[in-house]
Amino acid sequence: MSHPLDHPLSRRGLLGLGLAAGAALLTGCGTSSPSSASSGGRLRAAFAGGGATETLDPHLANLFNEAARAKAMFDKLADLGSDVSPQPRLAERWEPSSDLRTWRIHLREAVFHDGRAVRAADVLASYARILDPAKTFRARSSLALIDLPNSRAVDERTVEFALKRPFAEFPNVLAAFGTYVIPEGHTDFAEPVGSGPFSFTSWKPGRSVLLRRNAEYWDGAPFIDELEFLIANEETARMNALLGGQVEYAHDLSPVTARQYASRATFVKSPNSAMQAFAMKVDRPPFDDRDLREAMFLLTDRQGLVDTVLPGAGQVGNDLFGRGYEHYAAEIPQRGHDLDRARALIRKAGAEGLAVELTTAPVAAGFVEAATVFAGQLRAAGLKAEIRTGDKDTYWSDILTKGTLASFRSGAMPIETHIAQRLLTSSTTNATGWRRPEFDALYEKAVSAPRAADREGAYLEMQRTLHAEGGLLVWGFADWIVATSPRVQGVSAAPANTMDWARFDKVKLA
Amino acid sequence: MRPAGYVRRRLLLAPVQVAAVASAVFLLAEVLPGDAAVVLAGDDPDPERIARIRESLGLDRPLLTRFAAWAGGLPRGDFGESLVSGRPVLGLVLDALGPTAVLASATLAVLVPLSVWAGVAAALREGGRFDRALTAVGVALYAVPEFALAVVLIVVFGGLLPVTALGGLTPAALVLPVAVLAARPLCSLSRLVRAGMIGALASGYAAQAVRLGVPERRVRYVHVLPNAVTPAVQQLARTVDWLLGGVVIAEAVFVIPGLGTLLVDAVADRDLPVLQGLAVLFAATTVLVNLAADLVAFRLAPRA
């Protein structure tokens, strides 16, 4: 079922592994000044969802609708800003010790919906629940470097986290997906209590969740009185419901829909939201050959892929994750389409006429289409490309170990997190088989060197290596698309999973 | 045939049939690549996490142990808990049954009178303008798949009627889904009624009744019609079974949270307990609906 973070466009609306980024303010077709709108009213939002099997436990949130509801009712200590860098939320500020092993978090003054204050003890209890070895919370691996027994509440509003190793990017952890703060001892999510902008009213599993305005919210009370999340798994149903006036907000729409109905609804596109790529396995033939990988980079007609798969809703990629994000190596020149050089490299690698199997599955919007277009580009360069369609329910697990070339995507997350999860020897979801001790050492430097300039240098060096000979062929970045009725104002063009995505507390109904 | 003995035999056989279906579903789901743990892990397929999920779901226990635990709960009405949400399967299934039952009832309320009326009217003027129009429209409509009809109806009536049931299953919201669901059965049922009616009208007993001076209306509606609709009853049973088994496409297009939606979710999630609960329900429905159809047919036209 579902899974959030990376494949945002599947039926269930997964969240993109962190989708994110930036440019929240770049496009904003639908963003208008909220100050002119009147407040009040009920906003109805249609999301794809897990149907009758969904949950309101914010630590179990997996799908986009679950993440959006968790965000409406709960807060994290930090969240990701428009450049996917961590921004303070329930944490007012943080300070590391000089060795980066101890972090002091100062909480802001905030209260839960039942009137209790948010205390350091609640933070520790929430993190302890996520880290419980008997449970399977997604955020557990994000928090794994916290040495919980040696962490403590300094006072009611100060937490001191001890880490198992020095880590400069600890605020990324505080902003990690699913790390919500719940009141200590309140783990009955039939009636959730959080500190977020909306409090719980009612829930019909598989159908709707109704929330009401929290007038005491620390970040300013919402403008609307009520927020209702509705579930409509089919994209056409969400769009029809919007056009028919049954909802005011339809989440997760395709570029084709956006073009077709451009005149009848307001579309908000968030650039740099979902990385689109092909993953080559560098640990086995044929892509263990560096020349062949470079040939693959060069034979790719990125603009052709974007124009076909993401018409009007995407940009080309440069074989690096995280365009526009903090630490992104924008200084590396954009790679172009050079078929002659690609053919020469293929000859050099002795791979002329090589049969290449490209694995894909309809797990995310545009996957099969992109694979089809790319197979044509491989053939144009003299390779024999075959498309193999995998099982969509187990696709992400299957491609970790099987095949040599596969469709891949990722939502927004900090570049550090991307590397830690996918590109280290110890990474558990290393789909390209990229395991190099010298690269691991650079990562260690990037997250633990005392001097910021050294850390930045390590990020650049890692990205230069990946750009030159990595296994991830990043051909584009897809926009995230939502539609609203003309009555809705103040919807930010922030990528899914970032702080300003699905910020219904900042939205007004005209 | 004695109806009472027949019913007893059929009812005794029913649990065996249901158990066979449930076991088959269990085994087939086992054959699917990937279990609920892999599916749940989704785009975060950390092998260690998958192992932990598998353990917490009890999927690491042997197949027979799991099947026995599940089957053992059935007599107590315990269908187990959803692997994904942890909620009782019975509650999930009953919640989904409501919308499905409403939709099925509304569809039948339209379908049955309309198809009998159309079939009789066509048969009484066989070869007439109405008969030929019904045949032409029926064949054409029957060829239109549900999803295509749904799209057309939404485009045409979208301004007048709710296009999804997101606002609740109100009478207005039922109009389009019922139209979509009734369209194809209407074609086949009215054809069957028409054919049965033409055959029965031409039969010896109808002619004899007319010769005996029985009024024509009485012959048509009391003697001929019950015989004429008997073949349609079996077809209607299949339609009822289909409507109660979750109409996946109509539920998806019109956002109706019924059994079809639950079924699709359970398959995608490899949520075996939910899948098995649905299999038991569907098997029971099929057995009962067909039994009811046999009895109705027997009542309408008793045969030796």
TrEMBL record, chain A:
Pfam families: SBP_bac_5
Keyword Signal carried by entry: yes
Solute-binding protein family domain ranges (all copies): 86-414
Keyword set, alphabetical order: Signal, Transport
Entry-linked PROSITE patterns: TAT (PS51318)
Similarity field: Belongs to the bacterial solute-binding protein 5 family.
Record protein name field: ABC transporter substrate-binding protein
UniProtKB/TrEMBL annotation, chain B:
UniProt subcellular location: Cell membrane
Membrane topology designation: Multi-pass membrane protein
ABC transmembrane type-1 domain sequence ranges: 97-293
Top-level taxon in the UniProt lineage: Bacteria
InterPro entries (alphabetical): BPD_transp_1_N (IPR045621), MetI-like (IPR000515), MetI-like_sf (IPR035906)
Keyword field: Cell membrane, Membrane, Transmembrane, Transmembrane helix, Transport
Name of protein: ABC transporter permease
One Pfam family named in its UniProt record: BPD_transp_1_N
Similarity-based family: Belongs to the binding-protein-dependent transport system permease family.
CDD domains named in the record: TM_PBP2
Membrane-spanning ranges: 101-124, 136-160, 166-187, 242-263, 275-298
Organism: Actinocorallia libanotica
